[in-house]
Amino acid sequence: MRSGTTIPLGALAVIAVLMESCSSLQVLRKHELSGSSAINNAQAFSTRLRADSNRRYSLVSCIGATLYDQRRALHDVFQLDENKSAALSGPLNPRYDLWELDNPNQCSVLLDVDIPMTQEAAQHEINPRSVLRLCKISSGVIVHLNPRDIRRSKNAFHLTRDAKELIHGLGDIAKSKEPPQIFVILPDDSIFGGYNALTEFKEHLSELLGKHPNVHIMAKGEERKVYKTIKKIDKDSSPKDIAKAITMDDQNKDIMSSALVQIKDACFAEHYRNVNKQLSQLYKGKNMPDFGSIVQASLLDAALAYYLRASHMRLDDAALNYLQYEYKRLSLSTNDAYLRILVMAEAEAKSKLRQELARDYNQDTDKLVDLVMADFNAEMEKALASPLVTCKPPEWLSDTVETMRDQLRDKLESIVTVHKGLPRNTVYSEQERALEESHAKSKKERGVNMVLSISAMLRERGYGNRQGYVNYQYGPLILTLGYANDRDIAENKPGTGILTPSFRIQPQLHVNVSL
């Protein structure tokens, strides 16, 4: 009698195959490069890769495997742990995983990532440039295009912006010296609605990828075949290159610099609105001797805000360079304004001298020129004042002020010379004429005027009577009241038949009193 268990030979063969497959690929670690712990995971993995530079690695990149059948094929071929694999992904929770596999002869690192978004990597979980760099050093790349990655425009189908940028980047990789094998898996043919639309879409993909022998466009359902093919490609990837692509050492600086630029633009936006406002008032002719102090105080506020917001980024050199750029930008944008201030100050000084000479013709002109020059120097000192030591007006502006100061004194002395050499009546005739006309208009005639006139009357004959009369003269109204008494002629000679004449001339005396 034999004891033990009898196992059929067929079962032994199956067990042997399973054990071989289980030992061929075994997950060592999974590194999540998205989420709150992404930076620490990337740094830890890259540090270990750099330390283990003699080990042989083979990298395979899988992009866009989000549907069930795609995930199932990926898990089965590479024997990934379903409990560790992310079940859900999307724009709010993108998948970006690196799997370490214990496989000395085949794929040892697997990139499992969603199609990255094209926006700035500083604002999103996945950096598209990091994904493309990993694809470039991979032995094989497989891209799943799903219905959400394709949009319909009239009768044509095109890739979305994110998918198009990825395919375009893979097309550039395909043109490199040692490109990986690139496989693009199309979605189900039913979404295209016909053979012609599918053919046009494949041509659209070919234009983006380019026609290269290492680029393959596959139909849906060939995922397993492609995975089995791609994991056996014998191509080594340098651990240092993988670490560099993961951490993006050189591009992290670019990302941080991009963030610095955004912070700078936000901090200096109000400053440049203030500068433009001051410049607009200056160009409209408003005298602004304190222009420099205003704009530099605004720059100081913006620089302080920028420093407080960028100090935690540990990019002091870049932040300092951006500040130096803003100082230079302000200097270049305000040079014309300073020149305008100088010209306006010179014109104001000459106008002030002429006004003083017109006010008092006999005053001391040398002293007057000194006073005008003192006002000009004070205004220039105020205009060139700089609260920022690092943002002083350029040296050429100071030299220009010195030259203009000497020229202005000569111009003022020339004005005085011309003023003294011209006749006073000629120089001031118009002004005095205006004053005299104004005085004449306001002056009123006062006094007593006497006028002797003769009045002639034509009246009816009679024995005399008493009568009054009124005369009107053309022009100003003159009211003349008169009184005549002719009765004395008839009364003194009664019975004689003497009557008053029908025509009589009588002298009159007019007295006009003007108050």
How would you summarize what this structure contains?
Residues 1-24 form the signal peptide. Keywords: Signal. The protein has 515 residues and is α/β, with parallel strands linked by helices.
Structure description:
Keywords: Signal. Residues 1-24 form the signal peptide. The chain has 515 residues and is of the alpha/beta class. It has three domains: 16-247, Rossmann fold; 254-421, no CATH class; 447-514, no CATH class. Helices cover 52% and strands 16% of the residues. The chain has 15 helices and 13 strands. The protein has helices spanning 9-24, 38-51, 68-78, 128-136, 161-174, 195-209, 223-230, 239-247, 249-283, 291-310, 316-359, 365-383, 395-421, 424-442, 487-492; strands at 27-32, 59-63, 96-101, 109-113, 140-144, 150-153, 156-159, 181-185, 215-218, 447-458, 466-471, 480-485, 503-514. A seven-stranded mixed sheet has the order 1-3-4-2-5-8-9, with helices on both faces. Strands 6-7 form a two-stranded antiparallel ribbon. The chain has a two-stranded antiparallel ribbon with strand order 10-13. The chain is elongated, with a radius of gyration of 53 Å. The protein starts with 8 loop residues before the first helix and ends with a strand. The relative contact order is 0.06.
